[in-house]
Amino acid sequence: MKIVETYIDEWTGLQHPRSVATWHGNPPLETYPDKDFMNNRFTEPGTKTDFSSLTPYQARKKAVELARSKHNEWLPAGKSAAYHDGKTQIYLDKGVLAGSFMEGDKDPEVVAQIQPALDVLGASVDLLSIQDTVFRFRYHGLIKNKRGMAAWTETLIRDCGVSCTGVVFEAGTRKRDPKYDNTGDTWHGPY
Q1: Is residue 162 over pLDDT 80?
Q2: Global pTM?
């Protein structure tokens, strides 16, 4: 068996193989450079909370209060709505119905033919438009069920004898479901 040549490290007093680089201690801890904590683009300078004038206890208490609140001090009222309106303004300018709740053309004969499917779906959807064989609905149910409901709706429409190549459920800016209560049975949120 080959004998490994070692040396005794002066700092640790342990034997280390010579083929390994010498240990020079742990590298110094690197930290992020200090930045101004008010580097926020949305807060007006006169309305910001000056945390440097508060004691550490008061600053922590205020930070927890802001974190638990339903609003953000740094985002003025209407800023989020204006952002979303700006993102969807192109649809209004071009007259595109996709991505909006605008109603389009609905053939009354086709609506009468798919009435059994609309009765089954009930208040969970509203028919917005029918374009060729694509049906657009406004969806009021849970977001987690949106894809499955769209597939089921497509099947219901085909069962009514109507050609259907796609179903689109418009849910607006909703991306997730609201919270349930502790029992999991009652849903507290808008439809």
Answers
A1: yes
A2: 0.54
Amino acid at 142: L
Average pLDDT, the chain: 81
Please report the DSSP string for the chain in residue order. Answer: -PPPPEEE-TTT--EEETTSPPP--PPPPP-PPP--TT--SSS-TTTS--GGGS-HHHHHHHHHHHHHSSS-TTS-TTHHHHHHHHHHHHHHHHT--TTS-------HHHHHHTHHHHHHHGGGEEEEEEETTEEEEEE-S-GGGHHHHHHHHHHHHHHTT---SEEEEE-TT--SPPPB-TTS--B-S--
d(CA 13, CA 116) in angstroms, rounded, equals: 85
Distance separating alpha carbons of residues 63 and 56, to the nearest angstrom: 10
Cβ 161 vs Cβ 113: under 8 Å: yes
76-111 residue pLDDT tens: 677 778 887 888 888 888 888 887 888 889 999 999
Q: Which tokens go with 13?
A: 């007093």
Look at 183 and 77; give whichever has higher pLDDT: 77
Domains assigned to the chain: 50-96 (no CATH), 100-170 (3.30.300)
